Amino acid sequence: MAGATAAPRMGIIGFITASIAMVICAAICGIVIEWLGMWFWWPEEGASHAMTMVVREASYLHRDFVKATLFGWTPLDVVNWFAVYITGEPLHQGTLEPARYMPHNLFNGSMQWVQEYLLAAVYVTMVCIIRFCIILFTLPLYGLFYLIAFIDGLMLRDLRRFGGARESGIRHHYAKNAVLPSLWGGWTIYMAIPFTIHPNWILVPSVISSSLALWIATRFFKKYL
Q1: pTM value surpassing 0.90
Q2: Domain boundary pick from 137, 158, 184
């Protein structure tokens, strides 16, 4: 249509800003979901449900991410840095002491439940920090898969052009619009999910689906590069 303007493209700064905003919103959603769970599904557990999640998420770091490094830092180093900043002590694998986060006598009587919800918010924040560090350390995996998908897609695109095959702009546009949702969707689910799950069960499908979308978008790109 004449006079129609193309949608502005997202740059690197815009992508980083949108990713950080998405992670923060997912963390807030995780806190709200935990509070709803405390009210409807696990009221007898209270904040201990979120505390158990922290311990189990920390066990993944100790067991599966000990040798992972990024710029000389391991995920456990990053998480301990945040833990020291918040609590004054590094994260312990086995137990967490609620008194380190909030005095028991801050709320008494009928307001005791407020302390439980605030403790749960602190614990969920710790869970989100751990999960964010794991996402951060999986970025090289995303980059590797995207590079392979892009190169292979370009090769198939050239074979299609030189072979005189039919073009398909619709598949390109659909696949291009699916790259970021499949990327951010996996991150959002992983950050906000209210129970412990190994990151491979969420992040690996996110890597594969977003890479597949990039591969299809590159393969059926019609313009000359």
Answers
A1: no
A2: 137
